[in-house]
Amino acid sequence: MKLGLNAMETAGALMVLSLAMVALFAPELAPHDPVRAVAATFGDPGAPSRAFPLGTDQLGRDVLSRIIYGARISLTVGVAAMAVTMTIGVTIGLAAGFFGGAVDSILMRFTDVMLTLPALLLAMAFVAVLQPGLWSILIVIGLVSWTQIARVVRAEALSLTQRDFVVAARALGAPPARLIARHVMPNAMPLIVVMAVLGTSGTLLLDAGLSFLGLGVPPPTPSWGRMIEEATTYFRTAPWLAIYPGLAIFYAVLGFNLLGYGFIRRRGHSADFQ
Amino acid sequence: MLAYIIRRIAFGAFVLVGTSLITFCIAFVIPADPAVAVAGAKADPRTLAAIHHELGLDQPLYIQYARYADRALHGDLGRSYIRRENVTSVILSRFPATAILALSALALSLLLGIPMGMLAAAWRGRAPDHLLLVVSLALVSTPVFWLGTILLIVGGLYLRWFPLGGFSGPSSLVLPTITLALGSAGYYSRILHTSLAAAMDQDYVRTARGKGLSTSAAMRRHALANAMLPLVTIAGLDLGGLLSGVVLTETVFNWPGIGRLAFEAIFNLDIPLIMGTVLFSAALVVAGNLAADLLLAWLDPRIRLGRET
Known about the structure:
A: 11 helices; 0% strand; B: 309 residues; mainly alpha
């Protein structure tokens, strides 16, 4: 069944790649301007038709074009928020695992506290504080999602730090910064990369959830979560407004999950990632 | 056993103090002035100063926190700025709706997740295993609020089997429960699959198989009890994730619970209510973890008898 496992990873990679392409070539791919009224049905959502395959929204904007442009903001936020998350999580995890003792205790108790606060509620409170905007969203998602990364990286750093090659380098007089940068971190890198891929599915969902609650990147920038939020007013008469952007979110999140878990299963260490 | 329980309770108390500090910090980084939220944007400075004094906002931060912590310990989370009601009683009046939703979702997710995990482990490495992994990943990848909206369109609008939101008897509970449960079901099935697969490699299972038990009998009678232990811990820890889903589910279905309350509080910049709901949710998660720890001790003699390593 080696083939089946690789198929999962390949499918995930293709899904992520296709999204990146859509985001990159949005102006070429989108049939219409995503933020301007292009349909004559202004004021009423228009049903899917030959000219507008996924219909138009209450302002006469083309849903397909908005979803295509939405890939830009959604992927950017998902990936950039993941970068913030990894920076915090990897730093805290490496420090706790490498130094151990009091540093480990303090950092991990802090992690326990953060882990107790429901991520979305905490993110909502943070966004209310910071005013919604691209940067505040990235920082907020990073601030609430790093805990799991920190725990996994800490465990890895802890075991790496006790390995012979690190002990030997330490005995040769290498300072902590060099030990971490040259010996511990490079060996933790495969794990960190997988965590980043899997984590991106989490940041995508969190961003979509915040956008749905009206706390995402402000309009008129089309984002998938906000499109669904706007669609809830019309879900009785125009369900297509809610269905298609959700499929886009689902596709993106599933792509990152398949890629991450396919990789884990092939390597055969699934227990590390629960 | 007693030492273990005391340790877990002390840890829970520590976490609660930590979360109260964090929520307090968030509340006071808020740049918008709560007095403006109370009195309106056109209020004159003297009114604002009077409101500051009334709310205790003119005191140093550490005194404000000490007062807040003292009151919170006595069950008083302050007065809502906007609703002019006691935060504790507002939260408690909304709690039953959330509790019903969360508990039924937890039950449904275990009901779906456990058989899925068992099936995947029984067919390990073969097609049904891979299929179930993809299904569970699909469940985890579905946005809660989108699933809720779709269910509302299909089950409420087209089939007319269920009400279009609100909390009105058992039939109104069905769609929100499914919405909230499916993601967790996928997650739990993966956890159980991993721990079951590990348990099936143990010597005691090999012995059971050697005695002539079939794979499924060995799994049900020997491996499952051990493999359930990680699931209990995870389900306790996942309560925070469940409560995040509750906010979205309650928003979609207009469900009169704590999630919607938090959503409204944040839009009104109602600081005591924001702090109250976040702190209350954290307390629920701590209670859930504690319950999981106790259940674990009851299930696992190694923990109960204090040989916990």
